[in-house]
Write a structure and sequence with these properties.
With 285 residues, this protein is of the alpha+beta class. Helix content is 22%, strand content 25%. The strands form 2 sheets. Strands 4-5-1-10-8 form a 5-stranded antiparallel beta sheet, with no helix packed on it.
């Protein structure tokens, strides 16, 4: 709980007039701590929304016109976190920030998972993710990137509950660049494949990608007994795979968890011919 309270305090301190690169890097680094915590469903729902708020705040601080989620809105979050781990149900009431107006898609549905939904008749109902709209282009010559995620190959594909993929852009040191995005959950579980068929609009233009940067894809699913999301495996693609005008039917190898954004500890998840299948479209503006 202290980690997340600190995260929001840092976000509040990052005013639009006095923001340093170190501030922004610290916020991004702390926001990656979610998957290391053991949380209940309700706690994860609240913290997921807090993390979204921090992403939109960072986006505001790094934009040219400094528009977006405000400092005053960020100041409403420490109170939420202060009661979150004290068994006070008020933390699970209406979230104080309307994340939808900043670009979150179905933000109120994000991580809203209850045991009855998972184990009951609604367990196949998809839950909205946090996929963002196409990147807003402010100058000509900018190339935006859209990734179409088709399916992921898994020998036990039909056993997963509320599976989804988290997409992250990272730099050469493994630090996040821009917001992470989650696909909606899917119920299309077939032999050897989980079908997603989602389009992800990266919030980083092609021209900003540097050598050593990568796009990571983490396959996650819900574990009812532990009441938490778990990462099963991950894949990534590096900048040099962006060389073609349009990359069609790309198959990425799967690697064992835990996810390593630095790419130093990478081990194959399976020797079977099972991959993450996707294609990429580049749009020059």
């Amino acid at each position: 709980g202290c980690c997340w309270l600190l995260l929001v305090v840092v976000g509040c301190c990052c005013s639009t007039s006095n923001t340093t690169i170190a501030d922004i890097r610290l916020v991004r680094s702390l926001s990656r701590g979610l998957d290391d915590l053991t949380l209940s469903v309700d706690e994860r729902s609240v913290i997921s929304k807090v993390r979204q708020a921090v992403r939109f705040r960072v986006k505001c601080l790094t934009s040219l016109n400094k528009s977006g989620l405000t400092l005053e809105e960020m100041k409403s979050l420490p109170v939420v976190l202060d009661v979150l781990f004290t068994n006070d149900n008020s933390a699970f009431s209406k979230f104080p920030i309307n994340l939808v107006k900043y670009g979150a898609i179905n933000a109120e549905d994000e991580e809203k998972i209850s045991e009855s939904e998972v184990l009951g008749s609604d367990k196949k109902k998809p839950l909205g993710g946090t996929l963002l709209p196409p990147l807003t282009v402010t100058s000509s010559g900018t190339t935006t990137i859209a990734i179409q995620i088709e399916k992921i190959g898994l020998k036990d594909a039909e056993t997963y509950i509320l599976p989804r993929i988290t997409i992250s852009v990272v730099d050469e040191t493994g630090q996040l660049v821009g917001p992470q995005q989650d696909t909606p959950t899917t119920s299309r579980l077939k032999p050897n494949y989980v079908w997603l068929e989602n389009t992800v609009h990266l919030q980083t233009p092609l021209e900003a990608f540097k050598e050593g940067w990568a796009v990571f894809f983490e396959f996650k699913h819900y574990k009812p007994r532990k009441k938490k999301l778990s990462t099963r495996c991950f894949a990534f693609m590096e900048t040099d795979e962006f060389n073609q005008p349009n990359v069609d039917k790309l198959a990425l190898e799967l690697y064992k968890k835990p996810t390593d954004f630095t790419k130093r500890r990478v081990h194959l998840f399976t020797i079977k011919p099972l991959y993450l299948h996707l294609s990429i479209t580049f749009n020059k503006h």
